[in-house]
Amino acid sequence: MPQEVYSNFSIRKLSILDKDGKADEKLLPKLSPAQLKEIYTHMVLARTLDEKILKLQRQGRIGTYSPGLGQEAIPIGSAYATQKQDWSVQSFREHGMMIVRGVPLLNIMLYFGGDERNAKYPVDNILPNSVPVGSQTLHAAGIAMGIQYKQKDAVAIAYFGDGGTSEGDFHEALNFAGTLNLPCVFICQNNQWAISVPRKSQTHAETIAQKAIAYGIEGIQVDGNDVLAVYAATQEALARARTGKGPTLIECVTYRMGDHTTADDATRYRSPEEVQYWRERDPLLRMQKYLLAQGMLSPQLDEQIKNESTAKVEAAVLQYEQFPAPSVDDIFDYHYKQTPADLEAQKKELHAFLDTIKPLGNEGEK
Amino acid sequence: MTKMNMVQALNSALMLEMESNKDVVVLGEDVGVDGGVFRVTEGLQSKYGKQRVIDTPLAESGIIGTSIGMAIYGLKPVAEVQFSGFIYPAFNQIVSHAARIRNRTRGKYASGIVVRTPCSGGVKALEHHSESTEAFFIHTPGLKVVMPASPYDAKGLLAAAIRDPDPVIFFEPLKLYRAYKEEVPEEAYTIPLGKAKVVQEGSDVTLIAWGSMVKTCQEALQLNAQNEKYSIELIDLRTLSPLDWPAVHKSVQKTGRCVIVQEAPKTLGLGAEIAARLAEEDLLSLKSPIVRVTGFDTMMPYFKLENYYIPSPERVLHGVKKAMQF
Hints:
The structure holds 2 protein chains of 2 kinds.
Chain A: E1 12-14, H1 33-58, H2 73-80, E2 87-89, H3 95-101, H4 105-112, E3 126-127, H5 137-149, E4 156-161, H6 168-179, E5 184-190, E6 193-194, E7 197-198, H7 211-214, E8 218-223, H8 227-242, E9 248-253, H9 272-279, H10 283-294, H11 299-322, H12 341-354
Parallel strand pairs in A: 1-8, 2-3, 2-4, 4-5, 5-9, 8-9
Antiparallel strand pairs in A: 6-7
Helix pairs in contact in A: 1-3, 1-10, 1-11, 2-3, 2-8, 4-11, 5-6
Chain B: E1 2-4, H1 6-20, E2 24-28, H2 44-48, E3 53-55, H3 60-73, E4 76-80, H4 91-98, H5 101-104, E5 114-119, H6 134-138, E6 144-146, H7 151-163, E7 168-173, E8 182-184, E9 197-200, E10 205-209, H8 212-226, E11 232-236, E12 239-241, H9 245-255, E13 258-262, H10 270-281, E14 291-294, H11 306-309, H12 313-324
Parallel strand pairs in B: 2-3, 2-4, 4-5, 5-7, 6-7, 10-11, 10-13, 13-14
Antiparallel strand pairs in B: 1-8, 6-12, 9-11
């Protein structure tokens, strides 16, 4: 048997808006001026919220926060392509997705304020933050199995980072999705850094997108700071999933402009030059430049959008800070559909103790 | 009524629950065409199809993680982990997610999955095939843990676990799979989770066991009937979490003595919790120190030595004598 090439594989790369906001007209997705402005408005709101929560954290008014600064195009562009019946299974840097899908800013703040009531979303099909890295990819695959079994017109989207692709669950999720041909989209926010470990230390592969090849599924790399490219790639992947053509892995190349969380200091491990390089590729500024150049946005309208975002965020901060403290019963009451007697007894024991001391104030009430 | 062994009883429960609830799906390694390595899922795929009885890739975390997703979506997945010694790759999914989804979403979503997994030793199996891992899961808030000890209970408890809204880890003592047959109704029935069973009433000493140790204790009762003739009350816990504490307290308050029999390692096993609760709440009822008859704080030995590790009827009786002769 002679040696021969079994097959040649290739990976597509998609970019629509360049760093100066100039679009490749042939690749532009079908979006009306109103829709484009709406996407931009979501991005401004996400950025405004991000900056505000950072300030609140520094002032001790909210807990540890994972900023989304510089990555807004990914959760927003992808969520904008979803339909109501689609599922979004997030990691912990997809605040923009929640904004697009109608989760109130208050809920996002409550999460970082250590309040479990954050997850009472008034909208459906969104799972709350999942902290164990990479593990949530399997939940999206499982939801897609449910969609497939019930023969529904819906898709499950999983979000994760470049670090998450090193976890075994990422492999298992893509493998399940491939073998079972699931209606599932895997969106990697490749922001180059998993806390202090760079992307090149996570994998020797040239791209994350090419990992799709090994699972026999579709893979594409997109400019993750280009909201239109993210939207277009997600739209294409959703259409593929909806028509029974299986899952897609979308690698969105971006950069974590902020620290990993407010407990991190990224200056310890990366250079100012690198940060500056990416600052020039800001996803928000490039969308702004595009809209201004197209005449869809005026400096006045831009100012108005920013003012409205600030007002929304300030209103949410007020709601957040005036939100009544949770009941200590909340510690116990959501573990089981019906709380077992022994757990009820432990709750009573806590109350009996609290009756002997002064109320705890902000930390919890009886 | 018909005579069934535990494998047949479990299979019957799965058949009936799949029949009555279209949302029940079965998934795992070899559960389809092969009917499971112990044949518990035999015939399910030919009856209910590949969409409902899924031969998954060989990946425990994947099986449990996708089960969680399906449960969130509204299905009722019954996942099989081929041996409880192989459950560790899925441990993160069980502890970090299955147990927490209801709490994390404030009750909006739940992951009421059932994880069936054979456990414990006594059948001369290879390494990792004879583990008793229940304590990890009893220690995890948000889970329910069940371990039947008879074919009749196995069928009723599995049906109850499948109908339960919370995640249930369902341990099946593989030594009991084909150990004996008993009368089991052909129709569906449930045995409520969280209720222990008094296998035999007695007044001198309470013997507490679960899983395959119940049968070992029944054999100890037979030895006792020939010799010491103590009046022994045998309790089968059946559900390990939430545990039927009233049943435990009631019996020990009556007998004043307690021997706990567990196959798992001694330290921090369920027996330790039972002993602690009795010390906290029934100290004045106790006539003798609580005795634990357990496996050792060692690895489960390979099978040439496993019968020295697993409590035997004789060792159980030795423990009973210790309590009686204090």
